[in-house]
Amino acid sequence: MTSGRLIVISAPSGTGKTTICQQLRERHPGWHFSVSATTRPMRNGETDGVDYRFLTDTEFDEKLSAGEFVEWERVHDHRYGTLVTVLEKALDGGELLLLDVDVKGGVRIKNRYPSETVSIFIEPPDEETLIERLKGRGTDGSAVIRRRLERIPEEMGYRDRYDHVVVNDKLEVAIADIENILKETA
Q1: How far is residue 179 from each of residues 24, 148, 186, measured CA to CA in Å?
Q2: d(C-alpha 142, C-alpha 102), whole Å
Q3: Calpha distance 126→63 (Å, rounded)
Q4: What is the pLDDT of residues 126-175, one digit of tens each?
Q5: Which terminus of the chain has a lower count of CB atoms within 10 Å, N or C?
Q6: What angle do CA 103, 157, 175 make, to 5 degrees?
Q7: What are the structural domains, with CATH classification, of the chain?
Q8: Which residue(s) pair with 69 in the sheet?
Q9: d(CA 72, CA 120)
Q10: pLDDT at residue 2 above 60?
Q11: How far apart are CA 31 and CA 26, in angstroms?
Q12: Can you tell me the distance from the alpha carbon of 100 to that of 34, in angstroms, rounded to the nearest whole number?
């Protein structure tokens, strides 16, 4: 029997899930963070093994063939995945593990670990705010932003498959809402 907990945070691109996860990690240093694997290039300021585990396509394929991913997804021309070993180690060690994952991946994790997972869907306050956030990040070109926007209806369709929904209108309020959910589900 496992004693840890998986806290899955998912949202459409640009909703603020990564910022929320960063803030939660700063406020709760005892929480652990699941570092996802990805084939996308490292962005300025990112560190391998801290922000993501950056893999080549060949390395990703090898891990995929070996069944090492609990979930993986192709998102915007790159693959992202969560390694089974990361989750099993956290659960066996009694850790609270925070996961910042794509909406489909979050559902897969919840399906595989239903009693150990609290899933939280982050929703934008409205489409205009989401578009402003995507453009304001300055990390993607217009073609990538367009693909992210085209994917939003599909991603929003996963909303009802999550245990909780939090609207990220004001960052501090969204973080407090998540902290309250975790207190109530402890």
Answers
A1: 8, 28, 11
A2: 21
A3: 38
A4: 888 877 877 776 667 777 778 878 888 899 999 999 999 999 999 999 99
A5: N
A6: 55
A7: 5-184 (3.40.50.300)
A8: 83
A9: 18
A10: no
A11: 9
A12: 8
